[in-house]
């Protein structure tokens, strides 16, 4: 971590984000109290209609149960 709290230094930021823009995917997933996770959530994260991969992903869940975490 740099002195300004950033994980990337100025050189890395310029290299990875030359236009100073980020694409962020924000989604919510209603799990309907599923007892197990699906094998893949690629369709949710990388839909066929998407023209690019995002730089960061933020996913919230609804109706997830603690029982899933114990199994």
Secondary-structure map:
Elements: H1 10-16, E1 24-30, H2 42-45, E2 56-62, H3 66-70
Parallel strand pairs: 1-2
Distance between the termini: 35 Å
Strand content: 15-25%
- How many strands, which pairing sense, and closed or not: the largest β-sheet? 2 strands, parallel
Q: What is the tally of helical segments?
A: 3
Shape label: elongated
How would you sum up this structure, described in words?
There is one protein chain. This protein is α+β, with helices and mostly antiparallel strands and 71 residues long. The chain has helices spanning 10-16, 42-45, 66-70; strands at residues 24-30, 56-62. The protein has a two-stranded parallel sheet with strand order 1-2.
What labels describe this entry?
single chain; about 70 residues; alpha+beta; about 25% helix
Would you kindly provide a brief summary of this structure?
The protein has 71 residues and is an alpha+beta fold. Helix content is 23%, strand content 20%.
């Amino acid at each position: 971590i740099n002195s300004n709290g950033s994980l990337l230094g100025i050189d890395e930021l310029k290299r990875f984000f030359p236009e100073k823009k980020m694409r962020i995917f924000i989604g919510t997933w209603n799990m309907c109290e599923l007892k197990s996770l699906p094998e893949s959530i690629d369709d949710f994260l990388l839909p066929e209609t998407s023209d690019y991969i995002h730089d960061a992903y933020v996913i919230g869940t609804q109706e997830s149960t603690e029982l899933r975490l114990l199994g």
